[in-house]
């Protein structure tokens, strides 16, 4: 899974050739979630509320960039890094 961002111990990835709907994965320690890019709904998994709030804040700021990376990964193209939360 290519990493597209990392901040505050949270790792954000997108899989190559992954299934619809467009989504990304977030990992914080042993907790993982899959989040839909278009509406930022949690598709699967769970995460501590504070970490999840940071992921959602980051995703809202970079939604268009995440979608571009999804489209690139769906074609098997390299993804671009996205700035972390500061």
Describe this structure as you would to a colleague:
29% of the residues lie in helices and 29% in strands. It is an alpha+beta fold. It has a domain at 3-46 and 64-74. The chain starts with a strand and ends in a 12-residue tail after the last helix. The model has no long low-confidence stretch (mean pLDDT 96).
Residues in helices, as a percent range: 25-40%
SSE pattern, N- to C-terminal: EEEEEHH
Ends: how far apart?
Answer: 23 Å
- Quaternary state of this entry equals single chain
**In one word, what is the shape?**
globular
Mean pLDDT: 96
Radius of gyration using CA atoms only? 12 Å
Short characterization:
This protein has two helices and five strands; from the N terminus they run E-E-E-E-E-H-H. It is an alpha+beta fold. Strands 1-2-3-4-5 form a five-stranded antiparallel β-sheet.
Could you name the key traits of this structure?
alpha+beta, 5 strands, 86 residues, 2 helices
Sequence-ordered SSE layout with sheet pairings:
Elements: E1 3-7, E2 10-13, E3 23-28, E4 31-36, E5 42-45, H1 49-61, H2 63-74
């Amino acid at each position: 899974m290519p990493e597209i961002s990392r901040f505050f111990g949270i790792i954000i990835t997108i899989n190559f050739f992954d299934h619809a709907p467009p989504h990304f994965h977030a990992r914080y320690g042993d907790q993982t979630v899959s989040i839909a890019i278009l509406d930022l709904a949690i598709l699967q998994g769970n995460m501590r509320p504070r970490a999840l709030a940071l992921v959602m804040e980051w995703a809202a700021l970079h939604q268009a960039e995440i979608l571009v990376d999804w489209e690139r990964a769906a074609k098997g193209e390299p993804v671009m890094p996205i700035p972390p939360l500061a």
